[in-house]
Write a structure and sequence with these properties.
single chain; 257 residues; alpha/beta; 6-stranded mixed beta sheet; 4-stranded antiparallel beta sheet; 25% strand
């Protein structure tokens, strides 16, 4: 199967502090890949380097056969790779509709059709299309952040902690839409998550990142049963949050519909 995203030997430092050490990951077309790991493992940094929110200094990133290593963020978006950042970062003083329009600046000719698709996936946003984004609930803002990213017509969507601060039910709704985007639009998704149960329930494959290095990789079913994953996420390790069974049960129910 053709790779939609290939990351080769990426390293990154904040000053003298090395955060990523020769990290290599890949995601095939239409695949959902999750990157899990403890706080401070370098997960968000990796996504920011891929999307070029952080400068790529060592390594290579290829999106759909195009080497984006020398590109700045706007060109990376135009190449088909977009980031949904941690904390959503919607434009709070603009309406839902205006947020979506801004997200579609690289695909202006398709803007109306893409907005219609977003509203079809997130009917709640359609109900609030003229409402200021800052007045939305956290879950609604996360829907908007995903929708705004989709407006660039990406082939690869990177998501950083989309379940952060959301209720189990809202987490399940957002995850279910991501699954639909993969099934119905062929979107490739790379998902960074602390909620390993929700992430591995959705993903095809995953990587465990710890100390800036990939220490484990495999298909989602194998990772769920791996003793290392069990120990870190089910054993109450101090470096990470334990799983929330309510989120997992709600997601399983939603994805099963």
């Amino acid at each position: 199967m053709k790779a939609a995203l290939t990351v080769e030997g990426v390293s990154f430092s904040y000053g003298r502090a090395r955060v990523l050490h020769d990290v290599s990951v890949h995601a095939d077309e239409g695949e959902i890949v999750t990157i899990i790991g403890p706080n401070g493992a370098g997960k968000s940094t990796l996504l920011n380097v891929i999307a070029r929110s952080h400068k790529l200094r060592k390594g290579r990133v290829i999106v759909d056969d195009v080497d984006t290593s020398g590109m700045r963020q706007p060109r990376v978006v135009k190449s088909g790779c977009v980031l949904v950042p941690e904390g959503r970062q919607v434009f709070s003083t603009l309406t839902v509709d205006d947020n979506l329009r801004l997200g579609g600046y690289t695909a202006r000719r398709e803007s109306q059709g893409l907005a219609d698709e977003v509203y079809a996936y997130f009917p709640r946003l359609l109900e609030r299309r003229h409402q200021l984004a800052g007045t939305l609930s956290g879950g609604e803002q996360q829907m908007l952040a995903v929708g705004r990213a989709y407006m660039s017509s990406p082939r690869v969507m990177l998501l950083d902690e989309p379940s952060l601060g959301l209720s189990p039910q809202m987490t399940a709704q957002v995850m279910a839409v991501l699954g639909k985007l993969r099934r119905e639009r062929g979107l490739t998704i790379v998902l960074v998550e602390q909620n390993a149960h929700a992430a591995l329930a959705l993903a095809d494959r995953g990587y465990l990142l710890n100390g800036g290095r990939i220490v484990l990789e495999g298909n989602a079913d194998d990772l769920r049963g791996d003793p290392t994953i069990q120990r870190i996420y089910l054993g109450g390790a101090a470096t990470d949050a334990p799983l929330d069974p309510e989120v997992g049960a709600s997601l399983d129910e939603t994805l099963g519909e």
